[in-house]
Amino acid sequence: xxxxxxxxxxxxxxxxxxxxxxxxxxxxxxxxxxxxxxxxxxxxxxxxxxxxxxxxxxxxxxxxxxxxxxxxxxxxxxxxxxxxxxxxxxxxxxxxxxxxxxxxxxxxxxxxxxxxxxxxxxxxxxxxxxxxxxxxxxxxxxxxxxxxxxxxxxxxxxxxxxxxxxxxxxxxxxxxxxxxxxxxxxxxxxxxxxxxxxxxxxxxxxxxxxxxxxxxxxxxxxxxxxxxxxxxxxxxxxxxxxxxxxxxxxxxxxxxxxxxxxxxxxxxxxxxxxxxxxxxxxxxxxxxxxxxxxxxxxxxxxxxxxxxxxxxxxxxxxxxxxxxxxxxxxxxxxxxxxxxxxxxxxxxxxxxxxxxxxxxxxxxxxxxxxxxxxxxxxxxxxxxxxxxxxxxxxxxxxxxxxxxxxxxxxxxxxxxxxxxxxxxxxxxxxxxxxxxxxxxxxxxxxxxxxxxxxxxxxxxxxxxxxxxxxxxxxxxxxxxxxxxxxxxxxxxxxxxxxxxxxxxxxxxxxxxxxxxxxxxxxxxxxxxxxxxxxxxxxxxxxxxxxxxxxxxxxxxxxxxxxxxxxxxxxxxxxxxxxxxxxxxxxxxxxxxxxxxxxxxxxxxxxxxxxxxxxxxxxxxxxxxxxxxxxxxxxxxxxxxxxxxxxxxxxxxxxxxxxxxxxxxxxxxxxxxxxxxxxxxxxxxxxxxxxxxxxxxxxxxxxxxxxxxxxxxxxxxxxxxxxxxxx
Amino acid sequence: xxxxxxxxxxxxxxxxxxxxxxxxxxxxxxxxxxxxxxxxxxxxxxxxxxxxxxxxxxxxxxxxxxxxxxxxxxxxxxxxxxxxxxxxxxxxxxxxxxxxxxxxxxxxxxxxxxxxxxxxxxxxxxxxxxxxxxxxxxxxxxxxxxxxxxxxxxxxxxx
Lengths: 726, 159
Description:
The structure holds two protein chains of two kinds.
Chain A: H1 11-16, E1 31-37, E2 43-49, H2 51-54, E3 59-64, E4 94-95, E5 101-107, H3 110-117, E6 121-126, E7 139-142, H4 143-146, E8 156-157, H5 160-166, E9 169-177, E10 189-195, E11 198-203, H6 208-219, E12 226-229, H7 247-257, E13 261-264, H8 267-273, E14 280-288, E15 294-305, H9 316-319, E16 328-336, H10 350-368, H11 372-378, H12 396-407, E17 426-437, E18 443-450, E19 455-459, H13 468-480, E20 487-490, H14 507-526, H15 536-543, E21 547-554, H16 562-569, E22 585-596, E23 603-613, H17 620-639, E24 670-675, H18 699-711, H19 722-725
Chain B: E1 5-11, E2 14-20, H1 26-33, E3 52-55, E4 58-61, E5 74-76, H2 90-97, H3 107-119, H4 126-132, H5 143-156
Parallel strand pairs in B: 1-5
Antiparallel strand pairs in B: 1-2, 3-4, 3-5
Helix pairs in contact in B: 2-5, 3-5
């Protein structure tokens, strides 16, 4: 490809403050909203006193269940709906969890709205609630019974229990991770505005199509009359992957007032207003021969759920395939608690699943007396052990070998506690692998070639910082042999094209597939050869038109045509990783050095090497950043991030950025990133798999394994805190 | 009801007169009254640094800074960093060159803080930069790029 290091598209706008995010929109006459949230863990609202709040000068409106908001349910995203959960607050007196919105105050100014929101008084009839996996009052259900869909049934290959019992070497441990919150820097919020019968929403979203379809359903209007505009999203990480329940009431307020209304949720509210990574508990049993060759694995998972929805879990999708394990049994259960519905947070299942499996594999390597890299290489898989199909491509062994070399793994002394830094700190070196599905979703791409030689690419995808627009611009420019400055990409705007949700690391490969097809169509319409450089201006002028437009819709291999209808409606429709003729996954290997202070065992990550197999690298600059960022995520996930619950109060108690501790600059040491960069043409003609999620998978267990190597203490719960190492 | 306070301040070299509610933060005034939306709200509690601006040359988190307190002071925001001809400041250019950003939401605060870090003489070595940039959170995790950008810009400007 040309343009080896295409700089990030939009960087100039971002360093000058010119980039406009949802809440940056400030239409004339805008009013300001502020929610009031429940202060009990569960119950019923028996009284709501808004008199004092309504008396605050500037207050325009107070919405609650006492009004008839005329809002219909949007439905749960994983049940043919649009919303992060099925529950829509403000419609009745039921309180399902602490932090649930119970009223929305709208005022002329933000200070008035904030003051008034603090004056709304609610009385409750409280009910007992449960917020922890082991609490009284939880309810546990088997996934394959509660969600009877083929891809959600337990993975069972052969008689794993029998093979485990017969194995000479066995590991049987329980690992736990979560809950955690995504906390993108951009707060949840935006502006709702009516222009005639058209509702215009400016709000950061990974799924403008879901907002459009969901708001149309909630408000009983035509989706054609909803415009959602989100060219920039200040981080998503799964939090902004669906319709959130604050928007429909905002639209109702804007309609009643005849004014645009802006809402920016306080950071504390965001811990309850959207999804989070649920707590999950994993019992992993590994059986192996004396050399560490894996004979059987059993992976049983309990995942936190809400009372009202079940988040379909796919933890065993990767743990059954990371190695050549011929006997595997998975079991996934849901534990209903009194919280908002948990959801997707970067590598939602794969990060905790890899923590469990890759910690257990490290325990096995230690028990077998084998080097952890060598043991992983000895257990590498050829074909998919679950389906018997080939992998579209699999370069995990290459990731491990190259990573070991870059890291200098050969210099590792195997015994725990045997390496020390010059300052006396305990040094630990750990390794772990990761995998993540390479899924494909339906995408519509439209290319507009102008007589000035420029090309506008309107694509159903979202730019959350991952670099999709850079990859798109680079692909169009590279194909046509023109400069990247001649190409512009429009993402996250329902006025341009319909949009599928961008998540699951399927955004770049799926949108590149559509652009690839649209480029073939464009070349045909321009009357130029199917390959080679194009003088776009001359070719457009030769047609006699000012602009030549080409459009293509693509989908995943084996997907039914209805998938495209679902995409147009803003519903989810991913294909893979189990495709008709192959299974497709990306892979990664992480090598980590930790330094542990000997007295108070504070852990610092001094050095990380990560080598990824994501197929062909679509955009080197932004791909590198994706992996670096994911390593930072892994440091947070392993060492500090934990959403605390208190069984006395419900909700999450450390709901701000001082107490929910994400890594800062001083927490991050050297990070080296490399790519195998082998195109996967079995999966798609660009050879691109997935990257944004796999990059995180395995970082936390690599850190945990390094902590074990440094200290001899085996962390089995995330985050790993000082008190766990004393 | 709170009575309003007449306030005069300079923002990016322009004189501004406003009648302000004493509870209004400098951040909200910049964003909602003056249309300067480059400064971002990430927490409203001084915990994330996305709202960092300079007041009389010192970096402050504008969400914790009452706007009335900016009376007779000079405020510089991200919108006042590039040259009038649109030419990027060397630190902004370094952020682009070192890909020191992803989603871009924290970036204005990182740039304003980075300018402060260099001007304060706290960009002497990597550890010093890391320490003095740790009030600015970046959830995308662009920290190594931010470090490289500040290191480069500091070197370019003699210290």
